[in-house]
Write a structure and sequence with these properties.
With 183 residues, this protein is an alpha+beta fold. Helices cover 30% and strands 21% of the residues. The protein is built from four helices and eight strands, in the order ββαβαβαββαββ. It has a six-stranded antiparallel sheet with strand order 3-5-6-4-2-8, sandwiched between helices. A two-stranded parallel sheet has the order 1-7. A hairpin with a 6-residue loop joins strand 5 (111-117) and strand 6. Helix 3 runs antiparallel to helix 4 (144-158). The radius of gyration is 16 Å and the shape is globular. Mean pLDDT is 86; it is low at 168-183.
Protein backbone atom coordinates (compact mmCIF):
# COMPACT_ATOMS: atom_id res chain seq x y z
CA UNK A 1 0.00 0.00 0.00
CA UNK A 2 2.99 2.34 0.18
CA UNK A 3 5.54 3.44 2.70
CA UNK A 4 4.90 5.44 5.88
CA UNK A 5 5.78 9.10 5.57
CA UNK A 6 8.18 10.63 8.09
CA UNK A 7 7.43 13.65 10.25
CA UNK A 8 8.23 17.12 8.99
CA UNK A 9 7.27 20.19 11.00
CA UNK A 10 6.98 23.81 9.85
CA UNK A 11 6.81 26.66 12.37
CA UNK A 12 6.68 30.43 12.38
CA UNK A 13 9.06 31.62 15.12
CA UNK A 14 8.30 34.61 17.31
CA UNK A 15 5.15 36.25 18.56
CA UNK A 16 3.48 39.55 17.78
CA UNK A 17 6.02 42.26 18.52
CA UNK A 18 9.02 40.03 17.80
CA UNK A 19 11.68 41.16 15.35
CA UNK A 20 10.75 44.85 15.38
CA UNK A 21 14.04 46.06 16.83
CA UNK A 22 16.44 47.94 14.55
CA UNK A 23 19.12 45.24 14.62
CA UNK A 24 16.79 42.23 14.16
CA UNK A 25 17.94 41.56 10.58
CA UNK A 26 21.63 41.57 11.55
CA UNK A 27 21.13 39.40 14.65
CA UNK A 28 18.92 36.75 13.07
CA UNK A 29 20.92 36.44 9.83
CA UNK A 30 24.13 36.19 11.90
CA UNK A 31 22.59 33.39 13.97
CA UNK A 32 21.17 31.51 10.98
CA UNK A 33 24.47 31.63 9.07
CA UNK A 34 26.61 30.80 12.13
CA UNK A 35 29.34 28.44 10.91
CA UNK A 36 29.26 26.17 13.98
CA UNK A 37 25.54 25.49 13.50
CA UNK A 38 25.82 24.46 9.85
CA UNK A 39 29.23 22.79 9.89
CA UNK A 40 28.41 19.18 9.03
CA UNK A 41 26.35 19.64 5.86
CA UNK A 42 26.95 23.34 5.19
CA UNK A 43 23.65 23.77 3.33
CA UNK A 44 22.88 27.47 3.22
CA UNK A 45 22.18 30.28 0.77
CA UNK A 46 19.93 33.11 -0.20
CA UNK A 47 17.36 33.94 -2.83
CA UNK A 48 16.83 37.46 -4.16
CA UNK A 49 20.04 38.93 -2.81
CA UNK A 50 22.96 39.93 -5.00
CA UNK A 51 25.76 39.32 -2.52
CA UNK A 52 26.00 35.91 -0.90
CA UNK A 53 27.82 36.83 2.32
CA UNK A 54 26.27 37.55 5.72
CA UNK A 55 27.01 41.26 5.33
CA UNK A 56 25.82 41.34 1.70
CA UNK A 57 22.55 39.56 2.49
CA UNK A 58 21.88 41.90 5.42
CA UNK A 59 22.58 44.94 3.21
CA UNK A 60 20.22 43.53 0.57
CA UNK A 61 17.39 43.22 3.10
CA UNK A 62 17.91 46.83 4.22
CA UNK A 63 18.17 48.12 0.65
CA UNK A 64 14.65 46.85 -0.17
CA UNK A 65 13.29 48.41 3.03
CA UNK A 66 14.87 51.78 2.18
CA UNK A 67 13.70 51.61 -1.43
CA UNK A 68 10.07 51.36 -0.34
CA UNK A 69 10.51 53.53 2.79
CA UNK A 70 9.40 50.69 5.07
CA UNK A 71 12.23 50.51 7.57
CA UNK A 72 10.08 50.51 10.72
CA UNK A 73 7.95 47.85 12.36
CA UNK A 74 8.40 44.17 11.61
CA UNK A 75 11.85 43.54 10.12
CA UNK A 76 11.62 39.85 9.13
CA UNK A 77 9.77 36.58 9.41
CA UNK A 78 11.69 33.69 10.94
CA UNK A 79 10.52 30.21 9.96
CA UNK A 80 11.83 26.77 10.90
CA UNK A 81 11.35 23.61 8.88
CA UNK A 82 12.36 20.41 10.69
CA UNK A 83 12.82 16.94 9.28
CA UNK A 84 13.68 15.48 12.70
CA UNK A 85 16.35 13.04 11.58
CA UNK A 86 18.76 13.82 8.77
CA UNK A 87 17.09 12.80 5.49
CA UNK A 88 18.90 9.95 3.77
CA UNK A 89 19.69 12.02 0.68
CA UNK A 90 22.93 13.19 -0.89
CA UNK A 91 23.91 16.79 -0.12
CA UNK A 92 23.46 17.82 -3.76
CA UNK A 93 19.89 16.41 -3.83
CA UNK A 94 19.06 18.13 -0.51
CA UNK A 95 20.29 21.46 -1.89
CA UNK A 96 18.11 21.06 -4.99
CA UNK A 97 14.99 20.12 -2.98
CA UNK A 98 15.53 22.97 -0.51
CA UNK A 99 15.88 25.53 -3.31
CA UNK A 100 12.73 24.23 -5.02
CA UNK A 101 10.85 24.41 -1.72
CA UNK A 102 12.06 27.93 -0.90
CA UNK A 103 11.27 29.26 -4.36
CA UNK A 104 7.74 29.50 -2.93
CA UNK A 105 8.86 32.42 -0.76
CA UNK A 106 11.68 33.61 -3.05
CA UNK A 107 9.28 34.67 -5.79
CA UNK A 108 8.08 37.50 -3.53
CA UNK A 109 10.64 38.02 -0.78
CA UNK A 110 14.36 37.94 -0.19
CA UNK A 111 15.20 34.71 1.62
CA UNK A 112 18.20 33.47 3.57
CA UNK A 113 18.35 29.91 4.85
CA UNK A 114 20.69 27.47 6.56
CA UNK A 115 20.36 23.88 7.69
CA UNK A 116 21.37 23.34 11.32
CA UNK A 117 21.95 20.06 13.08
CA UNK A 118 21.84 20.08 16.85
CA UNK A 119 24.26 17.93 18.82
CA UNK A 120 21.57 15.28 19.01
CA UNK A 121 21.41 13.90 15.48
CA UNK A 122 17.61 13.81 15.35
CA UNK A 123 17.32 17.59 15.36
CA UNK A 124 17.94 18.33 11.69
CA UNK A 125 16.21 21.60 10.77
CA UNK A 126 16.43 24.63 8.53
CA UNK A 127 16.07 28.26 9.52
CA UNK A 128 14.41 30.44 6.91
CA UNK A 129 14.43 34.23 7.15
CA UNK A 130 12.13 36.31 4.95
CA UNK A 131 12.49 40.06 4.49
CA UNK A 132 9.41 41.80 5.86
CA UNK A 133 9.16 43.89 2.69
CA UNK A 134 8.44 42.17 -0.61
CA UNK A 135 10.21 42.86 -3.89
CA UNK A 136 7.18 44.99 -4.83
CA UNK A 137 7.11 46.97 -1.56
CA UNK A 138 4.33 45.17 0.30
CA UNK A 139 4.70 44.29 3.99
CA UNK A 140 4.67 40.56 4.63
CA UNK A 141 1.51 38.80 5.73
CA UNK A 142 1.52 35.05 6.13
CA UNK A 143 -2.07 33.88 6.09
CA UNK A 144 -3.55 30.43 6.58
CA UNK A 145 -4.26 30.34 2.84
CA UNK A 146 -0.61 31.06 2.04
CA UNK A 147 0.52 28.41 4.53
CA UNK A 148 -1.76 25.86 2.88
CA UNK A 149 -0.22 26.67 -0.51
CA UNK A 150 3.27 26.24 0.99
CA UNK A 151 2.18 22.91 2.49
CA UNK A 152 1.00 21.70 -0.94
CA UNK A 153 4.30 22.76 -2.56
CA UNK A 154 6.32 21.04 0.17
CA UNK A 155 4.29 17.85 -0.17
CA UNK A 156 4.63 17.83 -3.96
CA UNK A 157 8.41 18.13 -3.65
CA UNK A 158 9.12 15.96 -0.59
CA UNK A 159 6.51 13.14 -0.72
CA UNK A 160 8.62 11.08 -3.15
CA UNK A 161 11.42 11.20 -0.55
CA UNK A 162 9.20 10.09 2.33
CA UNK A 163 8.20 13.41 3.95
CA UNK A 164 4.87 15.13 4.29
CA UNK A 165 3.47 18.18 6.09
CA UNK A 166 -0.05 18.04 7.48
CA UNK A 167 -1.87 20.78 9.28
CA UNK A 168 -1.81 20.15 13.00
CA UNK A 169 -5.01 22.07 13.70
CA UNK A 170 -7.75 23.41 11.45
CA UNK A 171 -7.39 27.01 12.56
CA UNK A 172 -6.75 29.51 9.78
CA UNK A 173 -4.87 31.90 12.06
CA UNK A 174 -1.09 31.82 12.14
CA UNK A 175 -0.80 32.07 15.92
CA UNK A 176 0.83 28.83 17.00
CA UNK A 177 0.55 27.48 13.46
CA UNK A 178 2.63 24.44 12.66
CA UNK A 179 2.27 21.57 10.27
CA UNK A 180 2.99 18.04 11.23
CA UNK A 181 2.56 14.69 9.57
CA UNK A 182 1.38 11.46 11.09
CA UNK A 183 4.14 9.21 12.35
Amino acid sequence: MGHALKTAIFKIVGEAGSYVNEDAVEKIIKYVLKQEKRQKHDLWGSIGTIKKSEKGITEGFHKIKRLYEKEDGLQLKHLVLSWGQTPDLPRKKMRKLIKRTLSFWGMEYQVVYAVHEDKMGDRYHMHIVLNSVSNTGKKIQITGKKLNRFKRKFNNIWNPYGYMLKMQNGSETIKGKSFECDS
